[in-house]
Amino acid sequence: MDKLIIRGGNRLSGTIPISGAKNAALTLIPCALLTEEAVTLRNLPRLADIDGFQHLMTQFGVSHTIPGKRPEEFGRNVTLEAMRITSSVAPYDLVRKMRASILVLGPLLARTGEATVSLPGGCAIGNRPIDLHLKALEAFGAQIELAQGYVRAMAPDGGMPGGEFDFPVVSVGATENALMAAVLCSGTSRLINAAREPEIVDLCNLLVAMGAEIEGIGTSELTIHGVRKLHGATYRVMPDRIEAGSYACAAAITGGEVRLEGADAHDMGSTLHALRNIGVEVESDKHGVNVAANGTLKAHNLTTAPFPGLATDMQAQLMSLLTRAEGTSVLKETIFENRFMHVPELTRMGANIETTGRTAVVRGPVELTGAEVMATDLRASMSLVIAGLAAQGETTVRRLYHLDRGYERLEEKLQLVGADIERVGDD
Ligand code: EPZ
C-alpha cells in the first residue's frame, strides 16, 4: 500500500485544476440504466469509486467506452449504454466496497420493474441506514422486502404509479434514488423536504436532458411528471465543490495564494463564507475561485447542515485550518454520528481539540508537528494532509486508499502549487 510523505512549511501558490464532482458522478452514472440509448458523461474524475461503479454497471449488462485521452489530463469522458438489462442484482461483494452502489436501486426498479441490491451496511462515519430510500420507493408503489442482507424491490404490473413522500430527514442519497425512480413512473410524484445539494441539481439537469419532466429543481419541493421512456444524452459533470474547498483550506493553512480553476463559487457558498470569517481572502469569477491568506487566521464557530448550510464533507478540513486560528472555535457535526475520527490524529500532530458527542472545541493557534498518521475515512484523511502541509517536519499518511476514493491525483495537484509531498510504496 502507498503512503504520502509531506514536509510542511511551503506556502502554496499557483493554480489547481478542479475535477468533476465524485458525489455527482456517483448518481449520474446509474442514470444510464434508465434508457437503452447511450449516455455520455464528460469530466468524470479518475477515482477508485468511479471505476468501482462502472464495474458494478457491467453486472447489469451496461457497456462503457472511454475514448482515449492523454493520461496527464485530468478527468475523462465515458459513454454508458444499457441496451438490455441482463441482471437486476447488485451483489454483496461489490456493494460492500462502495456504499453508493445503493443508487442503482431506483433506476433498476424503474427500468425493469425489480431490483435486488445488497444492503450497504454502515461505514466509519456512521451506520448510514437506507430506510428513507425504501420508504420513498414504497410511496411510489414499490413493494419492498428485506431478506438475507439484500433489499428486493418490485414494481406492480404496469409499473409504479408514483406518489408523494415527505422526507423526515434531508437525505442526499434517498432523494437521488427517489428521483431516478420517479422519472419513469406512470403518474406524477412529489418529493417534500428533498435534498438541495448541487449534486441533486446536477442529477435533475441530466434527467431533464434525457427527457424527464421535473419542476422545482434546486428547491426542497420536487414535482416529477413520469414519462414512458427516456433517451440518451451527453452531459458534463459539475466541478467538485468539496475537492475545491479542501484545496482552499490547504492554501489557507500555509498562508498561500491559490486559484481553484473550474470551481463554482455558488456551489461552495457556505464554505467560502466560513473561510472569509476565518480571515481568508476569497474572490470568484466565472471560471474559478481565488483564495489567499496572510498567515493570521481567526477562530470561528461552525455547524454542519444540509445545503445551503455548511457541508458535513468540509468539517474535517476546516477543523484542520482552525487549529492554526487565533482563539477558540466550536464545531458542531449535525449530519453523521461519528465524524470526528480525524481528531485523535490531529491531536498527535499537536492540535488542541476536545470533543463531546457531536461538538468539537478547537483552541489555537498551535504549532503543528509532523507525525506518522493513519487515514480513516475520506475527508478525515484530507484533514491530515492539510495539517501536514503546515506542520513542522515530516508527516506520513498511510492507508491512502481512503484518499484515492475522493481526490484525483492529490499529490500531483499539490505539487503543482509547490507542496513538498510525494507518494511512495509502503515498505
Ligand atoms: C451523501 O451521502 C454523500 N455521498 C456524502 O459524502 C455526504 O456526506 C452526505 O451525502 C451528506 O451530504 C455521496 O453522495 C456518494 P444522506 P448519503 O443520505 O446520501 C441519514 C463524502 O465524503 N439517513 O444525506 O449517504 C444518514 O444516516 C461522502 O464524499 C437516514 O437516516 O447521506 C445521515 O445521518 C461521505 N436514512 C443523514 O441522513 C436514510 O435512508 C444524511 O445522510 C438515509 C440517510
Measured on Cα atoms, how large is the radius of gyration? Answer: 21 Å
Bound molecules: ligand EPZ
Question: What structural class is derived from the secondary structure elements?
Answer: alpha/beta
Number of strands: 24
Shape: globular
CATH architect. name of the largest domain: Alpha-beta prism
Helix content: 25-40%
CATH class assignment of the largest domain: Alpha Beta
**Low-confidence parts lasting 5 or more residues at pLDDT below 50?**
none
Task: Tell me what the structure shows.
There is one protein chain. The chain is α/β, with parallel strands linked by helices and 427 residues long. It is built from 14 helices and 24 strands. The protein has helices at residues 22-28, 48-59, 92-95, 105-112, 131-139, 172-182, 198-209, 241-253, 269-278, 315-322, 342-348, 378-390, 401-404, 410-416; strands at residues 2-7, 13-17, 38-44, 63-65, 76-81, 89-90, 114-118, 143-147, 150-154, 164-166, 188-192, 213-215, 221-225, 233-236, 257-261, 281-285, 288-292, 302-303, 327-332, 352-356, 359-364, 372-374, 394-398, 420-425. The mean pLDDT is 95. Ligand EPZ binds at residues 23, 26, 100, 126, 128-133, 169, 171-174, 312-313, 335-336, 378-379, 406.
Short description:
The protein has 427 residues and is an alpha/beta fold. It is built from 14 helices and 24 strands. Residues 23, 26, 100, 126, 128-133, 169, 171-174, 312-313, 335-336, 378-379, 406 line the site of ligand EPZ.
